[in-house]
Amino acid sequence: MTRLDLRTEPVVGTEGTRGMGVLFLSDWHLGWPWTRSLARELVRVARAARPDAIALGGDFVDHRHAVPTLERTVRLLARVAPTCAIAGNHDHAVERGTRRRVVREACIAGGATWLEDGPLRLGDLTLAWSRDLPVAQPRETVVCVAHAPSEVPAGCHFRAAVAGHLHGGQAILFTRAGRHFPGVLLSRWCGDRFETSAGPLIVGRGCGDSLPLRLRCPKEAVLLRFE
Q: Which residues form the Calcineurin-like phosphoesterase domain (predicted)?
């Protein structure tokens, strides 16, 4: 049975978003025997967190037979809160060799906003794809949603950015200056939170794995809480 930790990260918002929460769920890797129970756990965590919006960060499926499970899970999440999604590299691999973007279609059919088509706007809160960020300082609270931390662009404006992809390195021997070792030797973004010139970059450790090995690196959901 998969169990997810819920990590809460405080973020400075605007007056209109104070007290709001955005739940970030990434790197599901559905389609393996060890991710079979993950869909139920994702919905359980979302209901417990009671967010105002849900951002799905890609790498949803590793096998095409899991696409119907993806659609059902997105549909249940969208009943909890307005939901948006982007694709990850594993999703693109599943779609390779087909003319259909089956992951995008499943997310949209489940009721999610596909951020590559345009942002999700909820009053003063905007969730935008990392390649669709405002260059000028926006009045509203913008959350940048990326699959990988390296995809968060410099020179754009956001209140917070969220990304996954790295799984925390899956094994954490120790943490120094906010960076997880040995994972940081492969990516400088292997950590939980980084303060950038634009705003904080929050990196989730992922909800599932293609290779089911973890050491002192629990799978997690991340809740941004605006102050």
A: 21-158
